[in-house]
Amino acid sequence: MSLPKVEFKCNCNTLRNLSDLYCCTQCSKLSCNYCCETKIDSYFCPVSLTGLSSDEVSSSLCKSNKHFQCPQCESQLVFQATTENSSQKLYLSCNYCRYRSDTAIGLTFKSMNEIHKEYLAKERISHTGKEMESLKEYYSKISKEMLKLREFNSGKFHRLLNVINSPYKSSPRLRKKFSTGRNFSPMRSIYSNRYSQNERTKLGGSTVGSNNKGGGGENKDDKFSSSLMSSKKTYGSVLPNSQKMKFNYTNLEEAIEKRKDKITNTIHKTEKIQWTDQIPKELKNKFNVTQITSLQQRFSQLTTQPRKLSELSPQRIRLMNKKSKQCPNCQHTLIKPEMNPNKSTFKIKKLALFVLPQIFISKITETFQVNKQSELVISFKNPTFNDMKISNLEINTFHLSYQDQDQDQNENKNKEQTTANIVVKGTEFSINGYDESAQFSDITLEEETTQKTNDDPEFVQQRKLNKVYIKMLITPTKAINLLQIELKFKVSCVLQSKFESEASAIISLGEVN
Amino acid sequence: MNNFFGKQIFERQKAVVVDFGSSFIKCGFAGEGVPQAFLPTNLIDLQTGEQLEITSKNNTSQKKIQVWKRTLFKRFYSIFFEILNVNPKNRRVVFCENVLLPNFIKEMIIEILFEKFHVVSLLSVPSPVLTLVPFKRHVGLVIDLGHFESTVVPVYQEIPLYSKIEYCSLAFDSVVKNLRSIVLNELKEANKEVYQIAEKLPEKIWNQIAVKTCFVLEQNPLILKKEKKEKKKKEFIADINYPCLDKEGNDTAIAISGKARSNASEILFNGNSQNDFEGIPYRILECLMSCNSDITVALSQNLILTGGTSMVPGCRLRLENELDWLLENEPHFKKLKGLQGKLVFQKHPFFNNYLSWIGGSVFGYLEIMNEKFVTLQTFKEMGLKSIPNWSHFNISKEN
């Protein structure tokens, strides 16, 4: 039967191994990976192990400029030289899967500097792309217009309503048609110019109820639509280009009938889109599956996503970084690595392993039975060089399991029932520090240590170097099944050692089946 | 960036755009034309070994919340620190959310981003709204074919109409299972040794086989049978050998017949006998029918296909043909008969994979969208558990 392990409780109320925790010396609180704050310290290239600044990283899109990875197997590519026709050319080759860039794509370089000019420049253009630039320009234009309109309106919406409704006070039908509630929408009000007729047709919305001369053609007003002057013109009149249409207030019914035809035309006119994709005939014939890219290979080249292996090109290797961690309470650094990417040591290392005693369950004399007393021995190990004092030792059982941590604590207090009676015959003891020279001494350790200290043998069973063994007597009172007895107990105590001047409370939990 | 007050030393940093799909996470910076990386969403909890899925089928239970928090935290940690090389403390985040995402997942993501990573501000937009951005449109019917489920969402004036959403669980997952069952049935009779090997292959490899070999036929073979329009000369579709290893280590191959390659994706159009009796084209027309008659015309001219499954060769052509056939022959859709021949699928210069990510990238780039970003202060002042919906537009100060 393997002995169960002891876990420590972190600041965020989760249970973790002692090796996963960090201990802050200033505020003496534990934190784990989940609750401490991480920050990026420095960037470096994993192949050449050179440091980089954050500006270089963002300008090169988080990838190194000089090193490439194989498109088939994602291992590093190496430059090699060939001599063709008395001129030396460089090509990329993979040592793992024998990929060569000159036979696969025909990619060769004259010198190392050439890579930047041709290959990377092309890649950067295709990364953002012309289509994306045009999208951005389009939307930023619209947003500028809307900002100007907003300044002009200065947020007084009611003024608009009065101006709009005044010419149509006589005809309620038109007021309904052209009231502002019609095309109102949250986004459109922010970045679309609802009075500019050209924008409305472009935006693909319904063109019902607008003065369209047959579906989205360009108007002369287009040039002036972005200037403030034109917005002033359209602001005063509801229907855009109303001056051109020469809307007569007297012959309303005739005018509506005329416009009806134009409305119906716009609905049924569909733009004929020519799609050129059809199933290529190669798919239906036999082909070699090994020559087709898998999803993962396609996603390394998102701009083209080729289907064939022969169209893949080498990609740049991703950069890496070094992180430092901070205590969530007092914002002191817990872990700080060295800036030099060649070294993997740390400047500041505040692990809980170096500060807190390690707790193990070392002996269980008999199997547990209900209403029968049995022994349990716990050992405390001191990692520091100085003596450690432990006081206010309490060992209690409680009913909490891993999964019930989310429930309210009040519920648990009511349900808490002791599953066993634990007797510990002492509350204070001290542990010796780690002594390197003791390894080489001839005297047996047990004799030396038990003679010097006055320990109650029922409390402190043994002492060894920097370990202390403590006895517990347990009589379980309740059982889950006929076969199983579950015990969970927690240990709380107060630590004092020379490094820490303040007290720290630890709660640890062990499971015994 | 253009600054209104002339040259400024401080440049506004690019926002981070994250799109959580059911099988791939797309992440990158705003203003760029392509995401930095496609990561597989393997939300596997390291402590318990459970695999979690981001779909609409999750049940809330308190025990699972801890598990979700741990896995989501690890995912975001790897996105920020390992792939994007970015400190989340100074960045704004644009989050493209799935329309049918359960609320508790959204709340957890917001909690993690604000409290663990201390993000400056957050904007969460439903992904159908973002897919309209590359088309420069405000109205559209977004057909999203994903990995575990597919949805049809009508969007009018940038608000998704939640009551008219159509949903079905026919997606790439069901195509892979269909392929597997067809191939195994054929192998049972033909070659028993290879059958044993093929039975034990994990799901990942069946995914790969489906990606590399499957495609969609132009016409529905069941419909052709009914109308007796089958051609006398059947089209020849070749078998393909997928290489694998024997028990002893020798090279063998699994023969994937032409029938399996072309019929695997029929499940998307004909439906399942278990859950979804009708295929995807039926769902599209149902959605059009349920919408108001003012909107249907505009929607029918702006059909938008997104999602990875729609990139299977031949998918769009087949959808057009099926929709035309349904409008002609199905008596259920009498109302929509006038739309026959007028359904238009819109074109775009990007790939269907990351359309909603591009919308997020544009939104993160625009300065006018700054008002819509929610900072931690406003989040706490409002006292809500989660950010209000996209259609709840009374947050802005001017109104």
TrEMBL record, chain A:
Record keywords: Acetylation, Coiled coil, Cytoplasm, Cytoskeleton, Isopeptide bond, Phosphoprotein, Ubl conjugation
Transmembrane helix is among the record's keywords: no
Pfam families associated with the record: Dynactin_p62 (PF05502)
InterPro entries listed in its UniProt record: DCTN4
Subcellular location: Cytoplasm, Cytoskeleton, Microtubule organizing center, Centrosome; Cytoplasm, Cytoskeleton, Stress fiber; Cytoplasm, Myofibril
SUBUNIT field: Subunit of dynactin, a multiprotein complex part of a tripartite complex with dynein and a adapter, such as BICDL1, BICD2 or HOOK3. The dynactin complex is built around ACTR1A/ACTB filament and consists of an actin-related filament composed of a shoulder domain, a pointed end and a barbed end. Its length is defined by its flexible shoulder domain. The soulder is composed of 2 DCTN1 subunits, 4 DCTN2 and 2 DCTN3. The 4 DCNT2 (via N-terminus) bind the ACTR1A filament and act as molecular rulers to determine the length. The pointed end is important for binding dynein-dynactin cargo adapters.
Record protein name field: Dynactin subunit 4
Organism ancestry: Eukaryota, Metamonada, Anaeramoebidae, Anaeramoeba
From TrEMBL, chain B:
Pfam families in the record: Actin
Xref: SUPFAM superfamilies: Actin-like ATPase domain
Family: Belongs to the actin family.
Name recorded for this polypeptide: Actin-related protein
Taxonomy of the source species: Eukaryota, Metamonada, Anaeramoebidae, Anaeramoeba
